[in-house]
């Protein structure tokens, strides 16, 4: 849900209300483009790739996304995001419920996130995207990504809290949630308790860039988190990565309510597993591929705090109606049943991925 108590946390002590806090970011919903085993960042050209992802954004998404041959703003026919100049692609691992009774799997659907006005974003599945300027410091300027830029946050190999990033977390909605994303009440692990309003997974990307490389072999080294270890960054960057870029954040609202059987949560256990076999949650990760048209993102970031640009409303950016974004879908390139139909149960995770607990 929207950060109802964001203004109360120390992060934004200088702001007096959630409305002022909203001036630090733009925020919008992106509906489901496709669910499939494709990952052009980590496994370019592989079809199918190792595990299932839920992908949103520009319809030019393909199995390679080679920056030398593809330009998302010019080659996409539509975008599943409500800001209509954004043809970027955003993707995360799908989540599955593993039945304690018979070991079969059912994909957990995503649901719409909340709005500042108390309603819900117009989206079908997918996720919520944030672009944030510094939350502290004196220099609020950020520099838009360059065409071809991409990055990854999180580590799918992790099965314990050791080594996790401060911006990878899960929130139990309706059962003791906190304020700002990834605060002390959130955890990198799946909640081992019933969450009456579902689970929100948050992925916060680095805020600093080396100013030279659009990517790196591990898709991480060309970017860095701000000094100090906080999930949400101020205006400082390390000397190795001096360029302050917009900080990207995903919120994925998983509708786990159909699986809130108390029997599934006995003795500290829980029944969820990510598509890459992670039954702990610590390995959650997200992929980002920049694709805004022209200088649109820079216009939006420069307008924050001015011109009535805050959260879901930013006149500096062009928008499209929610139904038009929802209508932007793409057929699977790696065709297989990944559990996308209603009440569809699978005997194993797509690709035969094995579940690990440690």
Highlighted features:
4 helices; single chain; disordered N terminus; 358 residues; mainly beta; five-stranded antiparallel sheet
Compact description:
This protein is mainly beta. The protein contains four helices and 16 strands. The longest helix has 8 residues.
Question: Would you mind describing this structure in some detail?
Answer:
It is a single chain. This protein is mainly β and 358 residues long. It has four helices and 16 strands. Strand 5 and strand 6 (105-107) form a beta hairpin. A five-stranded antiparallel beta sheet has the order 1-7-14-10-9, with no helix packed on it. A five-stranded antiparallel beta sheet has the order 2-3-4-16-8, with no helix packed on it. The chain has helices spanning 18-22, 72-75, 296-303, 322-326, and strands at residues 25-30, 32-36, 53-57, 89-93, 95-98, 105-107, 127-132, 150-154, 168-172, 199-204, 208-209, 223-224, 243-244, 247-254, 272-274, 285-289.
Largest sheet: 5 strands, antiparallel
Low-confidence stretches: 1-22
- Our measurement of the CA-to-CA distance between the termini, rounded to an integer number of angstroms, reads 30 Å
Radius of gyration based on Cα positions = 19 Å
Based on secondary structure, the structural category is mainly beta
Number of helices: 4
Topology, element by element:
Blueprint: H1 18-22, E1 25-30, E2 32-36, E3 53-57, H2 72-75, E4 89-93, E5 95-98, E6 105-107, E7 127-132, E8 150-154, E9 168-172, E10 199-204, E11 208-209, E12 223-224, E13 243-244, E14 247-254, E15 272-274, E16 285-289, H3 296-303, H4 322-326
Antiparallel strand pairs: 1-7, 2-3, 3-4, 4-16, 5-6, 5-15, 7-14, 8-16, 9-10, 10-14, 11-12, 11-13
